[in-house]
Amino acid sequence: MEAEILEKSYDPKRVEEKWYKIWEEKGYFEPTYDKTKPKFSIVIPPPNVTGALHIGHALNNTLQDVLVRYKRMDGYDVLWVPGTDHAGIATQNVVEKELAKEGLTRYDLGREAFLKRVWEWKALYGGKIISQLKKLGASCSWSYERFTMDEGLSRAVREVFVRLWEEGLIYKGDYIINWCPRCETALADLEVEFESVAGKLWYIKYPLEDGSNYIVVATTRPETMLGDTAVAVHPEDKRYRALIGKNIKLPLIGRIIPIIADKIVDPEFGTGAVKVTPAHDFTDFEIAKRHKLPFVKVIDEKGKMTEEAGKYVGLDRFEARKKVIEDLKKEGLLEKEKDYQLVLGHCYRCNTVIEPLLSKQWFVSTKPLAQPAISAVEYGFIKFIPENWVNLYFDWMRNIRDWCISRQIWWGHRIPVWYCSSCGETIVSREENVDICPFCGSKELKRDEDVLDTWFSSALWPFSTLGWPEKTEALKTFYPTSVLVTSFDIIFFWVARMIMMGIHFTGQIPFKNVYIHALVRDEKGQKMSKSRGNVIDPLEMIEKYGTDALRFTLIALAAQGRDIKLSEARIEGFRHFINKIWNAARFVLMNLKDYIPDKKDLNFEELPLFSKWILSELQKTIKITREKLEEFEFDQSAMQVYHFFWDKFCDWYLEISKIYLKDPNYRKSTQKVLLEVLKNSLKLLHPFIPFITEEIWQYLPERETEHIIIAKYPLYEEKFVDEIAEKWVKILQELIVGIRSIKAEYNLTTKTDLVVTFRSSDKEVLDFIKNQKEPIKFLAKISDIELRSNYEKKKGEVSVVLQEGEIFINLEGLIDVEKEIKRLEKEKEKIEKKLVQIEKKLKNKEFLEKAPREIVEKEKNSYNDLKERLNKIIHYLSDLK
């Protein structure tokens, strides 16, 4: 059978779209519900419907796809649920910006018409990221695609809300929340981005009620003093012990407020006396509850001062700050101000400074939900990989606060609550619409204006996407899911909430493993951002280098617990590997022109040495690759196959096969070995680089399946492991590399008429090398190798010491010895100077402490490399002299 020949070079654009379309049409991505197969399932972390594929998505989805393709090939029935999140605030902002171009606001349209516009926008642009995921090669089960606001998921959201209400775990109440005056909505704690900014610390005199003295309070937000209801000191602070219980007169307002003692006060901050503004500070809110203080709200939802702020009413909060400071100065109540570095919270969407605000909101009481979720991880039912992320999870969960689930926007799941104007009752319903009050029959109903936090629907994702609350076949078959792949920044946002909701509503954990992948940074370790201009666009990289090159780069760099330092040069580097695979496959196929397939197994014992060795190395690679994939060590599994294919198969076996293919005794078995190794290598590589592996697969003369995507992942077979062959090939490789290094050092790489002498005291080694002379001569590009048990170095000879002996090459007449000595001495001098410089750095305590870790490591590696090179030069100089 004549094998087809691959084109000279690999063109990813030609094959990627073709194969993805075929895989999808053939239904390979869909689960089979075959009861005999083990099950594997993943839910995709749903990207925002507003989103476009960024490098974080590319990493996250590539890692999931590696697992999915591996498990599918390994005989599992696989379900990978894709979908998108409605992304409440983000999507509403996008549509509002579009309206602004028309000179309109959402209020001009009204709620119903505005939501119609959002759905229209979603229909036009919401699928963009899905098509980009397909471009990445993500083999999702697309018939299961979900959207957090589709009919089924909306029903699940209402069901969960009502059940939690019935259980007394949802309530509405006044609470201090993060408020964005620009978006006019509450924000979850983790939706607030904190940054250090230069500010001021103002020291204000608060006069005692009797006028005898004053107490000085330090604050970074003087405008909020208008809402103070106490001043607090630490109970053990001797400076203020006598003042505890006395009253003071609030400057500018005149309200009489008490001095109280509370252990939460830090005596080291400012003067040790702090103002208590319960309606505008999280800590003060807790103090007020403990001491039963009143709540005075002086800033409203638009960031303007309320009537409670007296003469400052209507001013923007920052304008009010300036006016308050001016007035304090006029009244002689501002003692001093000083520069102060403070940490300010900003809205994660619009970057507005958030305002802690007392507000009536809907909350989930989380402590009863948190305990089972903590236990599930404590007892190992759910594992975090890497394990150190468990500590962050426990820290958040053991200090959990009630979850504010209401948002003051229009796009999202509207809270299923109605208020009856006639009887005053609150109606909480599973129905989409309620028209009549079940308590009094009135039609005078008003629905709650708020929508649910986007993360509320996302928290149900592992079971709502499978049809819950219905007991669907998908839910019975694929829940709990096998693994969740996500990033550390949403462990609490999403992972913890899924665990809480999953256990509470299904009685089972939502997933068994949580793999936390690293962040992708630039090559210097900096966070990627448009303002820095260091963003790497995955779609541009795919266009330039192909999907497989980008995927393999991300996987190869995805070491557990370490951020990825990505550069375009790295992607380009791995593109060379993709080309190497193509060229190797082309070589194999070109040498199969007269290959006749037969069903007989290889007679392992009759194979030549290097054929035994490559098959043995293949088995070790299969074993380690599988182990590393099971342990989520993506980088190590990928690099295991990379080094096998490039370093062993291409650099050694393909070269030696050129001799074996010419030998009639070995030609057929060598063809079979070449095909066997290529076929298994393609299967090992398919989960990482699906497109090129499928393209080459189609050219193989023997393949057990039409497409590689459904081929069996290679299994480890111990019968092909030959440690003796490995031992002898290692000796040969060391010998050949030794000869090559001398030739390279003295610029003799094109010289093929060299005679090399090899000395060894081990007769077995000499006999073995005698039988392997042809491969040595061919691979080392020499004319002959003489074997000696005793040999004295002659004048003009250089040598390399090996583990099993020593190589000698006579350079007389081949090089100008004096010139060579000068060259090496010059290089030696240069290296010695460089070593002194690096040594100085590495002995400098300040450098070791202050320099980035990677810079220190780089210097240490340079030092070791230079030291090794110096030792070689000293040895060569000794030979030449």
TrEMBL record:
Provide the Aminoacyl-tRNA synthetase class Ia domain boundaries: 18-567
User: Which InterPro entries has this protein been placed in?
Assistant: aa-tRNA-synth_I_CS, aa-tRNA-synth_Ia, Anticodon_Ia_Val, M/V/L/I-tRNA-synth_anticd-bd, Rossmann-like_a/b/a_fold, tRNA-bd_arm, tRNAsynth_Ia_anticodon-bd, Val-tRNA_synth_C_sf
Q: Motif span ('HIGH' region)?
A: 47-57
Protein localization: Cytoplasm
Where along the chain is ATP bound?
K530
GO CC terms in record:
cytosol
Give coiled-coil spans as residue ranges: 814-873
Task: Provide the Methionyl/Valyl/Leucyl/Isoleucyl-tRNA synthetase anticodon-binding domain boundaries.
Answer: 612-756
Q: Name one Pfam family in it.
A: Val_tRNA-synt_C
Q: Name one GO biological process term.
A: valyl-tRNA aminoacylation
Report which reactions are catalysed by this protein: tRNA(Val) + L-valine + ATP = L-valyl-tRNA(Val) + AMP + diphosphate
- Domain (Valyl-tRNA synthetase tRNA-binding arm): give its ranges: 816-881
Annotated keywords: Aminoacyl-tRNA synthetase, ATP-binding, Coiled coil, Cytoplasm, Ligase, Nucleotide-binding, Protein biosynthesis
Q: What is its EC number?
A: 6.1.1.9
Motif 'KMSKS' region in this chain = 527-531
GO terms for MF: aminoacyl-tRNA deacylase activity; ATP binding; valine-tRNA ligase activity
Q: What does this protein do?
A: Catalyzes the attachment of valine to tRNA(Val). As ValRS can inadvertently accommodate and process structurally similar amino acids such as threonine, to avoid such errors, it has a 'posttransfer' editing activity that hydrolyzes mischarged Thr-tRNA(Val) in a tRNA-dependent manner.
Q: Which HAMAP family match?
A: Val_tRNA_synth_type1
Q: How does it assemble?
A: Monomer.
**Domains (record comment):** ValRS has two distinct active sites: one for aminoacylation and one for editing. The misactivated threonine is translocated from the active site to the editing site.
**Mind telling me which PANTHER family this protein's record contains?**
VALINE--TRNA LIGASE, CHLOROPLASTIC_MITOCHONDRIAL 2, VALYL-TRNA SYNTHETASES
Q: Which family does it belong to?
A: Belongs to the class-I aminoacyl-tRNA synthetase family. ValS type 1 subfamily.
Q: What is this protein called?
A: Valine--tRNA ligase
The organism named in the record is Thermodesulfobacterium geofontis (strain OPF15)
Which gene carries the instructions for this protein? valS
